[in-house]
Automatic annotation (TrEMBL):
Protein name: ABC-type enterochelin transport system, periplasmic component
The family this protein is said to belong to: Belongs to the bacterial solute-binding protein 8 family.
Gene Ontology CC: outer membrane-bounded periplasmic space
Organism taxonomic ancestry: Bacteria, Pseudomonadati, Pseudomonadota, Alphaproteobacteria, Rhodobacterales
Compartments where found: Cell envelope
Segments forming domain Fe/B12 periplasmic-binding: 41-297
Organism: Rubellimicrobium thermophilum DSM 16684
SUPFAM superfamilies xref list: Helical backbone' metal receptor (SSF53807)
Keyword terms of this UniProt record: Ion transport, Iron, Iron transport, Signal, Transport
Organism superkingdom: Bacteria
């Protein structure tokens, strides 16, 4: 599992960076790393990282072929394609000759291979999405000399978290569902989407769901039995650019009969930000804005 990776494996080849760059120490998914600040040519394999860097005004020179998230679309046209979310194009990376590569999430398993091309850090966001998301904002602020902007982003995030937590307080429990065509999975606290429960104090409609990547496969009967006050839905198909299908999948009498269905409390989140760029600054703010609007009605 990504969060079990050791602190010692930073996979940095610092000697290839410019000797005159000031060294800074930042927190990565594999521990603290000291490296030269302000890398001139930057390749980023992780969408959450591209998201947060964009919020800080940092533009990578290399990105994956598909970014999926609408508000990052302009980044794709400005940069060299360096592979997919999962597989780097080592030839393209070598041609770009980056000073630093940022990997994470879906590309975390490629850190060793990437480090043969250029210094590479793993900025995966996994278990503590909000806490690690804050850490990444601060780290990028330090790395790129944008500490003040990073502090402002963190303050805005914390304010939005507090505002949304106040809105959900006393409004009942929730069940988080991900649809993938006709398939349905449920996610609880400790899962990739579990920060919606833990960071906002939103009670789980059903506890002890599988915290692993793909959640628990569930049926309409399960949803009816749990009878959540709220359903929070992520459409994986739509997140990866396929036709949206979550509303059709959940158009079922058993779902309609739940408290959530009866009260019109089924919230369809913008799927790409939370599914593809989870933990990125704008991703989290987008999700929080949508939850705030739903629970404030």
């Amino acid at each position: 599992m990504l969060h079990h990776l050791g602190r010692a494996a930073a996979f940095l080849i610092l000697t290839s960076l410019p000797a005159w760059a000031e060294d800074v120490t930042i927190t990565t998914a594999r521990g603290e790393v000291t490296l030269p600040a302000n890398p001139a040519t930057l390749a980023v394999m992780d969408i959450a990282a591209i998201d947060t860097l964009a919020a800080l005004g940092v533009v990578p020179q290399g990105v994956p072929d598909k970014l999926y998230v609408p508000y990052l679309a302009d980044r794709a046209g400005e940069a060299t394609v360096i592979g997919t979310l999962f597989e780097p194009d080592l030839e393209a990376l070598a041609g770009l000759d980056p000073d630093l590569i940022i990997a994470g999430g879906r590309s975390a398993s490629q850190v060793e291979a990437l480090s043969q091309v250029a210094p590479t850090i793993d900025m995966t966001i996994w278990e503590d999405v909000v806490g690690q998301g804050r850490d990444r904002i601060a780290a990028y602020g330090t790395l790129f000399g944008k500490e003040e902007q990073a502090a402002q982003l963190i303050a805005a995030l914390d304010a939005k978290l507090a505002e949304t937590a106040a809105a959900v307080a006393g409004k009942g429990n929730a069940l988080i569902l991900q649809t993938n065509g006709p398939k349905i999975s449920a996610y609880g606290a400790g899962s990739r989407f579990g920060w919606i429960h833990t960071a906002l104090g939103l009670p789980e409609a059903h506890e002890n769901l599988n915290p692993e990547t793909h959640g628990d496969s569930v049926s309409f009967e399960f949803i009816a039995e749990v009878n959540p006050d709220w359903l929070i839905v992520i459409d994986r198909a739509a997140a990866i650019g396929e036709p949206a299908s979550a509303a059709d999948t959940l158009d079922n009498p058993l779902v309609a009969g739940t408290t959530a269905g009866q009260k019109g409390q089924i919230v369809y989140l913008s799927p790409a930000p939370i599914y593809i760029a989870g933990g990125g600054y704008t991703s989290m703010m987008t999700t929080l804005d949508e939850l705030l609007a739903a629970f404030s009605r």
